Amino acid sequence: MALSRGLRCCQRAFAWLPVLIITLVVLWSYYAYVCELCLVTLSNPVEKGMLAYLIIFHILFVLFVWTYWKSIFTLPVQPGKKYHMSYADKERYENEERPEVQRQILAEMARKLPVYTRTGNGGIRFCDRCQLIKPDRCHHCSVCAVCVLKMDHHCPWVNNCIGFSNYKFFLLFLAYSLLYCLYIAATVFKYFIKYWTGELTNGRSKFHILFLLFVAIMFFVSLMFLFGYHCWLVSRNRSTLEAFSAPVFQNGPDKNGFNLGFVKNLQQVFGEEKKLWLLPIASSQGDGHFFPMRALCEAQNPLLANEEQWEDDGIDEEPHGKVALKEISCVLTYSD
Questions:
Q1: Once rounded to an integer, what is the mean pLDDT over residues 271-289?
Q2: pTM for the whole thing?
Q3: What does the pLDDT read at residue 297?
């Protein structure tokens, strides 16, 4: 027991290593740009653009650090209590050995919930570890050991699960880190050439500036592909998991099941207040439990729509399932 506990502590500590590496690289880049470039290279002799360099650099630096901080320390949101099994249902489910009766217990719970996606074989999405019905787009993260609403992926570089609560922050982090690297590379390149040709000779600053350019370009190229991929995902209203495995609805898998069109897809992540789009302030639409779908024209819960399937398992239709779902508006098909 003590050994396994010690291993878990070591694992948790080791998970912070990528964050530590990024933090050290960012701190060094700040020192190299502000001290070695602006205060040493540009001040000897003094150049007119030094103040402008410093102002723009610090604006990008603050936004970059702010979004990185929010991506790391914004906890992933878990499903609400109504998605968890009650004590009585849990006892019934665990004591029942017949699969068809277990499915009936889950079906009774699902009738009361706005869940529209299924497992690959058409069953109800249930998490055995968290003991809950999974809301649409919710997945269990094996690293965080919890179910995460609208889970996108677990990112080792922020040591956190990217999902509904921090996906906007993660996108802004990628955008500002991209701009941060691009700005450094663009402003350092001129002095890189001067050091390369021997016009400038300060040995210590030369090392920092040359290395700063290479690191900025390296991170810029890698971030450009990652940011571009996530922009494409947002435009299609998909998560990384959904891009690899399409969500399953009543009529089968549909990779565009949540695609409402570019503008509405963007608003779902960033919100309707455009003044908040570029700031790491929570503004995403909804609460992460229910998402409008491309076409929702069922008069009842799609998990229970196939009456023949459930009748074979001895499950009867209950009127309150229809009443509950009348409160959910039908979302018509949107064009891309």
A1: 95
A2: 0.84
A3: 40
Q: Where are the beta strands (DSSP E) in the chain?
A: 126-127, 132-133, 139-141, 146-148, 153-155, 160-162, 248-249, 252-253
Q: In 3D, which of 322, 331, 329, 237 has the Cα closest to residue 293?
A: 331
Q: Is pLDDT above 90 for 100? A: no
pLDDT tens digits for 58-95? 999 999 999 999 999 999 999 999 999 888 888 888 88
Beta-bridged to residue 146, according to DSSP, are 141
**pLDDT tens per residue, range 206-235:** 889 999 999 999 999 999 999 999 999 999
CA-closest candidate to residue 72, choices 142, 9, 165, 141:
165
Active-site option among 155, 181, 297, 330: 155
- Are the C-beta atoms of residues 294 and 335 closer than 8 Å to each other? no
pLDDT-derived band at 296 (thresholds 50, 70, 90) equals low
Q: How far, in Å, CA of 61 to CA of 257, rounded?
A: 38
Residue pair 79/147 in contact (Cβ under 8 Å)? The answer is yes
Q: Are 163 and 151 in contact (CB under 8 A)?
A: yes
Burial label, 310 (beta-carbon count in 10 A; 0-12, 13-18, 19+): middle
- Residue 147: active-site member: no
CA 7 to chain CA centroid, Å, is: 28
Cβ neighbours around 270 below 10 Å, total? 20
